[in-house]
From TrEMBL, chain A:
SUPFAM superfamilies, alphabetized: NAD(P)-binding Rossmann-fold domains, TrkA C-terminal domain-like, Voltage-gated potassium channels
Keyword Heme listed: no
GO cellular component, one term: membrane
Domain (RCK N-terminal): residue spans on this chain: 292-407
Signal peptide positions (record): none
One Pfam family of this chain: Ion_trans
UniProt key word Ion transport: yes
Domain Ion transport span(s) in chain numbering: 40-270
GO biological process, one term: potassium ion transport
Topology within the bilayer: Multi-pass membrane protein
Protein name per its UniProtKB record: BK channel
Length: 530, 235
């Protein structure tokens, strides 16, 4: 077996090894996967390590580190080296490059040559090494090698390593990099002015007897200090010509500074929504938010208020800045954007974490659209949609809504009840809205509850100021127990169960009464005092 | 033109919806609006509708407000219109029932101040419904399939003069055993029109003119009505 064959065989072994893949996956989670739960801990650890090693560097300037300091330094460098090597390893799969080359050669019936394959694998790794962050990593390690001690200042690059571990710094860099063209233009303009001014001042001042400029470096230094409006004053022009150049340079400097400021400001202005949205995304992730509210109009606001009263976590999406501001004032997580935006829904975790979506916008077209795409992305999600027109209820159900709420229909129901039966209205209104203190409540009968096996007649509900309304039980109707039984979805409801009705574990006892009476009953059940 | 005692002002989607619900309950309504297009749309759907200038008190008197009309619904989509109509109608008839739509808490306060009897906020209610669906899904499912799914009705039954029920205590009725019905409560008109819930702890003694609010199947409610009527003739 030739060397090349051995290598190929080894590559295939790696490709087929689950242990190798598992290991690489674990390293990926640790170093790169932004969603891995371990990432924040690793990042904080690395930040502390970097800060510690830089602090040692500062301390070392005036003091002797001693044995412990050296040990910590060695430890930190070891961790940096391991991290560098792991990232180097993680960047791509060399064995896959070789396998690909080999299979291509086999396919077109060429002889496989190891040389080019290996070199392309090496090129892949080299590509990693020339990445800015990889260079920073390397520069943070190299000066620790004794013969290269003179490079000690590069230990400061360890601070740049913080880019990797903090999101805000990397966001700053990302924002600036989007303004690359403007910044490059500015830089060229600045270099041109500096160079021109430096040349001119050198020309006039270096020859002059009282001139403070000794070399071209001095004039560059002077030009930059003047242009940036810092103006130390350690080098000042002594000739009239030199002063004229200063005047021109100062005015040009003002332009450059304001140009620079405006670039930065506009870059952040454009990106601020995105940055805020990212903040919210990570917050949503951290808090394990499972409810997404699309639309923060009147209905959305009411729902959000109720949900927050229940201490449930949710996140609001609305295209209007005004609504988002309102949501934030109330302390809710909110992102400005359209619910129809596929990528926004994905960033919110609609495919994974979110298990309830509320489409509450005032536009039925939008509600149907969001319902449809959300249902396609996640078949198991619960979707509650608002239907502003009665005829759209069917469409929403067809699009995949689990439940629909039609504001006008509910209004009609209540209003009609008021016109027809004003007395019964209060009861209906109470049932529908729970705004009256009397309402309908359900109590779950637990497996170990004292109520299991009891008959309805044995419990004196009236003494507890409760009216038994019915029982919700899993399964289908058993019409022999009670004749007024209604089939619900996978459950059934026994209305007005007779005295002989026997309670079972897991039944939901539906009661009408004051909320305190129900709370009291629950309390008694918990303590087994019934 | 028949004399309807229930009028709806505002022929938008909301007016349409309420008209449909009312006619399902056998209540005939007449719709009014100042918008010709909306009225035309409703006429095409077979509803009774007409154009009116609601700012003119004479016109309002002409359609029976202050005379035979008992209930009006102000369902314009603009709050100022509802407010204006409420004020005018209240001035014409202090006993008129005025039901208004409101789209915010502030606007509902204004409408109540203007003299509305009942202000309903569809968005508030819908929001609460959505929350109920999340917080108590089984209950909502049950209510939707029974009470709002037309299997079970809530009904009010007036106790006629010389009924055997008069003089009985609420707890003696035992309607949940004799009929398949639950008595939610009773309204004693002499004590105001508040609903006294069965579970309030007060064992109310019924007399003629009281109104029972019961919940149950349609047939059972009919049976009770027949029973109450039949019993009233006996000594």
């Amino acid at each position: 077996m030739s060397f090349a064959q051995k290598i190929i065989k080894y590559c295939y072994t790696l490709e087929g090894s689950t242990r190798y893949k598992g290991l690489k996956g674990a390293v990926y989670n640790l170093l790169q996967n932004p969603r891995a739960p371990i990432r924040p801990y690793f990042d904080i650890f690395m930040i502390l390590l970097v800060l510690l090693s830089v602090w040692l560097l500062i301390y070392e300037v005036k003091h002797d580190l001693g044995l412990w300091g050296d040990l910590i330094e060695v430890g930190a460098v070891t961790i940096f080296i391991i991290e560098y090597l792991l990232r180097f390893w993680l960047y791509n799969d060399s064995h896959k490059v070789i396998i690909e080359r080999y299979e291509r050669a086999e396919f077109i019936n060429e002889t496989f040559r190891l040389g080019p394959a290996l070199s392309s694998a090496i090129v892949g790794k080299l590509r990693y090494m020339i990445q800015p962050l990889a260079i920073i990593d390397l520069l943070a390690i190299i000066p620790s090698y004794r013969p290269l001690r003179f490079l000690r200042i590069f230990l400061l690059f360890r601070l740049f390593k913080l880019f990797r571990y903090t999101r805000s710094i990397s966001e700053f860099v990302k924002v600036l990099s989007e303004k690359r063209i403007e910044l490059v233009t500015l830089f060229i303009f600045m270099a041109f002015i500096t160079f021109t001014a430096a040349t001119a001042i050198f020309f006039f001042e270096a020859e002059h007897d009282e001139g403070q400029i000794d070399g071209f470096f001095d004039s560059i230094y002077w030009a930059l200090v003047t242009m940036s409006t810092v103006g130390y004053g350690d080098i000042t022009p002594q000739t009239t010509e030199g002063r004229v150049i200063s005047l021109v340079l100062i005015i040009a400097g003002l332009g450059v500074i304001s140009f620079f400021t405006s670039i930065i400001v506009s870059a952040f202005g454009e990106k601020i929504h995105e940055i805020r949205a990212h903040r919210v995304f990570s917050e949503v992730e951290r808090k394990q938010v499972d409810t997404l509210v699309c639309g923060f109009g009147r209905v959305g606001q009411v729902v959000a208020d109720r949900l927050s009263e229940d201490k449930r976590s949710f996140v609001v999406v609305d295209p209007l800045e005004e609504n988002i501001r309102l949501a934030k004032q109330r302390g809710y997580l909110a992102v400005m954007g359209n619910g129809e935006d596929n990528s926004l829904l994905v960033s919110m975790g609609i495919e994974t974490r979110i298990n309830r979506l509320l489409c509450l916008t005032g536009d039925d077209v939008v509600n149907v659209y969001i319902t449809l795409i959300a249902r396609q992305m996640n078949p198991d999600i619960e979707i509650i949609s608002r239907a502003n027109h009665r005829e759209n209820v069917n469409k929403l159900h067809r699009a995949g809504a689990s439940h629909c709420v039609a504001p006008y229909e509910v209004f009609g129901l209540i209003a009609a009840e008021y016109a027809g039966q004003p007395v019964a209205f209060e009861a209906v209104y109470g049932l529908l809205t729970r705004q009256t203190s009397e309402g309908i409540e359900a109590v779950r009968i637990k497996r170990d509850s004292s109520l299991v096996g009891k008959q309805m007649g044995e419990i004196d509900f009236l003494a507890r100021k409760l009216i038994p309304f019915g029982i919700i039980r899993d399964g289908c109707c058993d019409s022999e127990i009670d004749n007024s039984c209604f089939n619900l979805n996978e459950r059934c409801f026994y209305f007005n169960p007779g005295e002989g009705f026997t309670l079972q574990a897991n039944d939901l006892l539906v009661l009408i009464g004051h909320e305190y009476s129900v709370i009291h009953l629950r309390d008694c059940l918990e303590r087994g005092e019934l | 033109m028949a004399r309807q005692d229930t009028l709806i002002f505002g022929c938008g989607a909301l007016g349409h919806e309420v008209a449909m619900q009312l006619s399902e309950r056998g209540i005939q309504v007449y719709l009014y609006s100042n918008n010709l297009d909306e009225v035309g749309g409703l006429l095409a759907k077979g509803l009774q509708a007409a154009v009116i200038d609601y700012t003119d008190d004479e016109k309002l008197l002409g359609i029976g407000i202050g005379k035979w009309v008992k209930t009006i619904f102000c369902l314009f989509s603009e709050e100022p219109k509802n407010l204006f109509l409420t004020l005018s109608a209240r001035a014409l008839d202090p006993d008129l029932k005025i039901v208004c739509v409101a789209e915010s808490i502030e606007s509902s306060e204004r409408l109540l101040a203007a003299g509305a009897t009942k202000v309903i906020d569809p968005y508030e209610i819908s929001g609460q419904r959505v929350h109920e669906m999340i917080a108590r899904p089984y209950l909502v499912e049950m209510l939707e399939n029974t009470v709002f799914g037309k299997h079970i009705d809530i009904a009010e039954i007036e106790i006629p003069d010389s009924s055997v029920l008069a003089g009985m205590a609420l707890s003696d009725l035992e309607l949940n055993k004799k009929y398949d019905l639950i008595v939610l409560g009773v309204v004693d008109l002499e004590m105001g029109n508040q609903l006294i819930f069965t579970n309030s702890g007060v064992d109310h003694h019924l007399d003629a003119g009281d109104i029972l609010v019961v919940i149950g199947g349609k047939q059972e409610i009919e049976r009770l009505k027949q029973g109450v009527l039949a019993a009233s003739g006996e000594p």
